[in-house]
Amino acid sequence: MARARTPATELARRLNASDGPLYVVDAQYTLVFLNTAAQTWLGAAAESLPGTRCAYTTAPPNDGPGAVAAGLCPPPEAMAGETVEASVAVPSPGGHLVRRRARFLPLGTTPENVLGVVAMVLPEMPSAAPAEPLATEPEKELGPLGLHELLQRFRTEAAARYGADRLIGSSPAMRLARRQIELAAGCRASVLLLGPPGSGRRHTAAAIHYRAKRADSGSLVPLQCGSVPAELVYSTLQAMSTAERGPDTSPRTVLLCDADRIPTEIHGALARTMAKPSFTPRIMATAEQSPVELARRGKYEPELASLLGTITIELPSLAERRSDLPALAQLLVEECNARTDRQLGGLAPEAIDLLMSCRWPGNLDELAGVIEKAHRAASGPIIQADDLPASVHLGRQAAGTPARPKEERIVLDEFLTRIERELIRRALAQSKGNKAKAARLLGLTRPRLYRRMVQLELEP
Q1: Angle at which helices 267-275 and 230-242 cross, to 10°
Q2: What secondary structure does DSSP assign to 123-181, as a single string?
Q3: How far is CA 62 from the centre of its chain?
Q4: Angle at CA 56, nearest 5°, toward 52 and 60?
Q5: Which residues contact 336 (CB under 8 A, 6 or more apart)?
Q6: C-alpha dihedral over 285, 291, 293, 295, to 10 degrees?
Q7: DSSP summary character for residue 219
Q8: In what order do the strands lie in the sheet with 84-91?
Q9: pLDDT (tens digit, 0 to 9) for every residue of the chain, 460 residues total?
Q10: Half-sphere exposure at residue 232, Cβ-oriented, CA atoms within 13 angstroms
Q11: Which residues face 32 on adjacent strands?
């Protein structure tokens, strides 16, 4: 007698019979089932996925099962009971991310009773020309799903070249910075990163250093020039210039943080040390003020200034790249998703408007702190304006900028009346009060002009 199938066995059999890839994620964001078509689609990566927790974030390719699971993660809106169609991205055999559309069907109708999500990967569409991965398209007001897909495209098509996620954006300043960073990563010339505090100078320096992927790159050693004694800065560079080279004993790049604050009494000694043929470490430096400009004003050693900045990269403040803020905020939300168990889809349009209205004196670091607080405070799958900390609301009031400009209501009759009254006044002024002449200028008879003046309460 044939053994009776359990409901779970029968469901698995039916799902495996589907020609299209299907997979199931439970309410704790754990991949619990992949049908046969999904396993075939994912290849060897599918073996380690069941039981893997996925985070709603755009992970780089070749980063293990967690990265594959992240590429398959359903949007948090689906876990709240909403049927959603969005992109999934998985590594190809060549190491690149391949994006496909999927429909996410919640197993439940409210956040309280959703047991999980069934994902149906849709048939591949004919390939089209790749979209510009860096355009944030602010005029289209991309929502959380659109911004998530923007980050996917950036990771797929550009992050491998630039090596730093926070360089995303379509502002002219960031396009120029990305080209300079790619140039700097391809050589060992000294690099000076100019920008205000919080603009991501150290993050970019690390991206350049590790993006180079040289066998002799060694480690990146940051040195805080503004907060350590001058003697320590000098002795550290001297020690690095005389150390025996080896894979584990000699750092190959020193990062002089706040190089514009190096004490003037050691400028000459540093320049002589760095100019020696025996000095092998690569120099990178960050500064708020340009050492070259300081040298022009007699406040910096010219030779040291020239040694620090063979390549100079200017990182804009957040206020100067305001159009990039929606994509940056989405990126920071997804970074919080990767670090915590909470999974959020992004920010509501009203929350984005509120962030756009602030001045951000602390730049990216300040924005990251705000997003982290809002991520903890949010009660739904999307960060709302009320979830943002009080400092943001106060910042908007201080900036004097409304979250969204109110549309002015135009009443046509009143508008036309104002125009007619102004035209009559101008005709009377041009005719020096001669009503007959004013009527001819306006194409009216004198009696009709007189009647309109009475109706419009103009002085007869």
Answers
A1: 10
A2: PPPPP-PPP-TT---GGGT--HHHHHHHHHHHHHHTHHHH--GGG---SHHHHHHHHHH
A3: 22
A4: 80
A5: 342, 344, 371, 372, 375
A6: -160
A7: -
A8: 31-34, 22-26, 116-121, 97-106, 84-91
A9: 455 556 667 778 888 888 899 999 999 999 999 999 999 998 888 888 999 999 998 865 456 788 889 889 999 999 999 999 998 988 776 656 788 899 999 999 888 899 999 999 998 754 444 444 444 444 346 788 888 888 777 766 655 555 556 678 888 888 888 888 888 888 888 999 999 998 889 888 888 887 765 545 567 888 888 888 888 888 888 887 765 455 545 457 899 999 999 999 999 999 999 998 888 888 999 999 999 999 999 999 999 999 998 899 999 899 888 889 999 999 999 999 988 989 999 999 999 999 998 889 999 999 999 999 999 999 999 999 999 999 898 866 665 544 454 455 667 777 778 888 888 888 888 888 888 888 888 888 888 888 888 888 776 5
A10: 9
A11: none
Amino acid at 156: T
* Pairing, β 382-383 against β 346-347: parallel
One-letter amino acid identity for 385?
A
Residue that has been written with the tokens 């805080």 in this structure = 224
Nearest to 352 by CA among 369, 334, 328: 328
Q: Tokens 């009475």 identify what position?
A: 454
Which residues, in sequence order, are CB contacts of 94 under 8 Å at separation 6+?
Answer: none
d(CA 141, CA 137): 7
CA distance 368 to 345: 16
CA atoms within 13 A on the CB side of 283: 26
